[in-house]
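HUMAN:
Just now I want nothing more than another pair of eyes on a protein record. I would be glad if you read both lines and explained how they fit together. I have put the entry right below:
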Amino acid sequence: MLEEAGFFIGLDDTDTLESRGTGHLARHIAAALARDYPLLGVTRHQLLIDPRVPYTAKNSSSAIVLASNGRVAPEALMNRVQAIVREHFNLGSDPGVCVAPRVPGAVTAFGRRTQRQLVTQDEARSLAADHAIHLAGLGGSEDGVIGALAAVGLAAGGDDGRYVMVGRSRDLNGLQSITAVLEAGIADVRTLDGRPVTAGLILSDKLRPARRGAQPIAFVEWAEGYWRPLKLD
């Protein structure tokens, strides 16, 4: 069954080479928001690797996916997320934040473009304005608005990136049964060619399921008597 996502929050460029990454901040924000909103997960999305792009390490951005509970006001949520980012982002970074309750196909297409070619702040800001999406830069060059909008589009598309936080999956360690992995919040376990995995043990350390069909899917390969998880973009 597909998720009932209500809001997508995008973050990018909140870190420096000496600090923890944007994904760490995204998980911190997600944990704070989970007290008030149903949290569906935090995802990582890989953007273009190119020497012309001023990224910190691997040029990835993060998205937080919330379920709709009828109490989410976009402007209030944007203000809350911005306040946390302003408190925790690292000086020298160029943070961007995006909040969107409904994500049109044009924004997902924009996200796909950021994975293949250079795009500009003006393109991101114009597209967000056209669709009444909250998008803001909070420091430095504000280039993070590009990745923040891209993360929202890619997460909303449902078939990109991987979860860095979903259910209780980060609490797992060592070899675990398929049942334990599913009960921790993973929707399905599959091989790369799509075959379902229903038996055996999975090495659950650093389990990072892919976002496919708007669900957390753990892709695995057989190795040395157990299933080893794969990290997909």
The first strand starts at residue 5 and ends at 12.
